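Weekly sync, protein design subgroup
Attendees: M.S., D.O., the rotation student, P.L. (late)

Item 1: inverse folding check
M.S. brought a backbone from last month's batch and wanted to see whether the design step gives back something sensible before we order anything. D.O. pointed out we never logged the input encoding, so this time it goes straight into the notes. Structure tokens as presented (266 positions):
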């Protein structure tokens, strides 16, 4: 009797908790993100509110000519260029004389873009994203390689982190931090074990899409490169499970890699 009553209590409690979790999840999903922004006009700007919602992104402004509502399918690319800069690349033509797509550049006036916004965009957007604000990452990276990002002049230092579903460059310069799902990468390449490149879909003024060149401070051995390659180039010839950490191959590299994984967990 007592056991039955306890079982009923547990059942009711778990039902209640489940319902609450559903309500909470629903309210989180429905909550749009709102930011006070400046829309950059090159010469001057207009001000308004950028609303990132579940179905659309809206720019509300008293400057009526620049008011917009975009469905996600109307947006070619969302670029979080820094914690305060967000670009929306649309399919709208820049004008009668231009073939290029119109880009709306917004600067956040009083708060930073948060990990929650990145989490939301990663769930919502299937097209390539540019993300300099890291989302919530719960797992440990499979591999960690300290690296310098080479610029045309100088560079910035940081760490490349390889996850089963993403590649991260965590830079000391927040503008150059990137979170790439493997679908956000066009191709990877390397010149020997200390030079690594990531070709992205990110726009570059007056040039082809942006390529990140890295000088590696530790070797990028074949098993790590393979691990990345099969994720960027999904082919039937390289079947893998997304959660599979690394294929056990009888090379000395695997021993080194497992040591490195332990180091990265500290
Ligand atoms: Zn404007
Ligand atoms: Zn950099």
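Designed sequence read out in the meeting:
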């Amino acid at each position: 009797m007592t056991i039955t009553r306890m079982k009923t209590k547990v059942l009711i409690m778990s039902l209640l908790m489940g319902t609450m979790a559903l309500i909470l999840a629903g309210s989180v999903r429905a909550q749009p993100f709102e930011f006070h922004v400046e829309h950059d006009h090159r010469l001057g700007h207009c001000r308004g509110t950028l609303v990132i919602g579940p179905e659309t992104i809206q720019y509300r402004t008293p400057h009526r000519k620049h008011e917009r509502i975009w469905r996600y399918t109307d947006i070619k690319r969302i670029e979080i260029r820094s914690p305060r800069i967000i670009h929306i690349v649309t399919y709208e033509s820049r004008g009668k004389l231009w073939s290029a797509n119109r880009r709306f550049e917004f600067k956040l006036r009083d708060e930073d873009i948060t990990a929650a916004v990145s989490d939301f965009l990663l769930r919502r957007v299937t097209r390539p994203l540019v993300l300099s604000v890291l989302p919530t990452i719960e797992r440990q990276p499979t591999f960690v390689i300290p690296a310098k990002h080479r610029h045309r002049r100088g560079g910035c230092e940081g760490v490349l982190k390889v996850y089963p579903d993403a590649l991260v460059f965590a830079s000391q310069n927040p503008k150059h931090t990137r979170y790439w799902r493997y679908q956000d990468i066009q191709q990877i390449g390397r010149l020997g074990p200390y030079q690594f490149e990531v070709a992205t879909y990110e726009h570059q003024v007056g040039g082809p899409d942006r390529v990140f060149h890295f000088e590696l401070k530790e070797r990028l051995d074949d098993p790590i490169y393979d691990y990345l390659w099969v994720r960027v180039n999904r082919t039937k010839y390289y079947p893998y499970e997304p959660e599979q950490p690394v294929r056990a191959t009888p090379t000395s590299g695997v021993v080194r890699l497992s040591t490195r994984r332990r180091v990265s967990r500290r």
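Discussion: The radius of gyration is 22 Å. Helices lie at 2-30, 115-124, 222-232, 252-264.
Action: P.L. to compare against the previous round before Friday.
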